[in-house]
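Practice problem: predict the structure.
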Amino acid sequence: MKHLTLTIVILLISSKSFTQEISLESGLNFSKYIYSNSAGKSNDNIKPDTGFYSRLGLGLFQLASQKIEYGLSFQQFNATGGDGYENYNWNTNYLGGFVKYQKLLYKNIIGAKLSLDFLYLVSVKQKIGGKTFDLTNQKEMNGTWINPSVGLFVNVVNSNSFGLDVGYNFSYAFKPSNQGTESLSYMANQVYFKLYLNPYKKEVAISDYERSKYIVPDSISKNQLALEQDIKNLKFEINLLKQTPVSPPEHTVFFHLDSYIIDKDQYEKLEKIARYLRNHPTSISTLVGYADDTTGQTEYNQTLSNKRAKSVQEFLISLQVDPSQCIIKGAGETSQFNQKIYDSNRRVIIILTPKK
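Answer:
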């Protein structure tokens, strides 16, 4: 039990230092006991039963080029039995931690995953007739268990703030250490749903220096603030007149095929743009969305380009950018960027210009 407690504490502390992506996976274990006694014989009277399981995802860490989810795991492996004279059942509860890798395979909707749970027996009750027996100290059930599983899932919802998956797992739990004269393992079919929060809608960290720009002392009146803003705008316009006209700066956000969800590798550039817009309230961003003209109908691609621009707008607003600084436009399908590399056509161009 000391090892389990230490594992949980390490996971909770580690969650502060790795990427935060909170998730809750919960469902049913349809478990089967694979049992043999000291003589090597199985008990055909032991029948499968249902139990509950749940995984609380605390965050992600990087392993090579892959992101691995980790967190806490609770598993119930239950069974029933009977010999024609009396019925009995087992209710077992295991608690521990897990690591998991998953990947979307088909159109960012259907995916596969591998999980590994490290479990410790918390309690096990056996009921025979009207009596209940505590089997927690039984060698074949207690101690530390390993529970690998493989599964498939379908992404039902994947908005810019949260997601929902439904799926199926097959797992096989076993005790790696000595079980004594008897042998026991658990085989389970799991059906589940998973809720998770997308991490980019986080509170923007502002340094003390930057914070002073947004916190207005009570001694300054609204008229003084308005006057100062007018002076800043005037200086900005004068500087523009002095400068040699140049093409407005552009930034690009790329998307996957038939998707308007912003990838995590695009977050950093958008955070820099959001910081620029917060520090330059007289600037605006025009968000022009495009779609690839090699797939989909023209009307569908127009809608997709609009959604891509809208996703970028929502991202910037979530990072405390004034909505009036974000103008969206869906340009529809195009091949003008690169007719050979179609991924480059699935984009949103961000054009930064001063307010007129």
